[in-house]
């Protein structure tokens, strides 16, 4: 008995090591002393910072427009846009619950009457 010597491909060669230099330029930074949030999408009109300026690209002379704190007291609080997806699904729950009791009884009575008619028709057939 000889097992065929099938060469197996060494799967260790395909380690996807992607050293992607992902810069996250749109992270927001919060001023620790006063709570001011620098939003890169808006920039800082007070300090003459254009919109879409990453925090790290702010000049070292940049100060908090509210309290004048330096950049090193700002804390990264992540990118904006976390408040999306809060649109509640209004419009659900409209169905049987919106029917009045008379409509419900009419529906039930109609169903019973229909069932009775069907039973009578079967009875008549016999
Ligand atoms: Zn501040």
TrEMBL record:
Domain (Rubredoxin-like): residue spans on this chain: 26-77
Protein keywords: Electron transport, Iron, Membrane, Metal-binding, Transmembrane, Transmembrane helix, Transport
Residue span of region Disordered: 1-27
Segments traversing the membrane: 106-125
Cross-referenced InterPro entries: Rubredoxin-like_dom, Rubredoxin_dom, Rubredoxin_ET, Rubredoxin_Fe_BS
An annotated Gene Ontology molecular function: electron transfer activity
Cofactor(s) required for function per UniProt: Fe(3+)
Biased composition (Polar residues): 11-22
Gene3D superfamilies: 2.20.28.10
BP GO annotations: alkane catabolic process
Similarity comment text for this entry: Belongs to the rubredoxin family.
Protein's name in the database: Rubredoxin
Organism of this sequence: Zarconia navalis LEGE 11467
């Amino acid at each position: 008995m000889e097992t065929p010597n099938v060469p197996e491909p060494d799967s260790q060669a395909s380690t996807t090591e992607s050293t992607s230099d992902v810069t996250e330029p749109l992270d927001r930074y919060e001023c620790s002393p006063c709570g001011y949030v620098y939003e890169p999408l808006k920039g800082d009109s007070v300090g003459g910072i254009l919109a879409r300026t990453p925090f790290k690209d702010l000049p070292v002379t940049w100060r908090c427009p509210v309290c004048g704190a330096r950049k090193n007291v700002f804390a990264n609080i992540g990118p904006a846009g976390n408040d999306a997806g809060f649109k509640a699904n209004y419009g659900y729950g409209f169905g049987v619950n919106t029917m009045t009791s008379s409509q419900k009884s009419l529906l039930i009575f109609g169903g019973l009457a229909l069932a009775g008619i069907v039973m009578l028709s079967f009875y008549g057939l016999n």
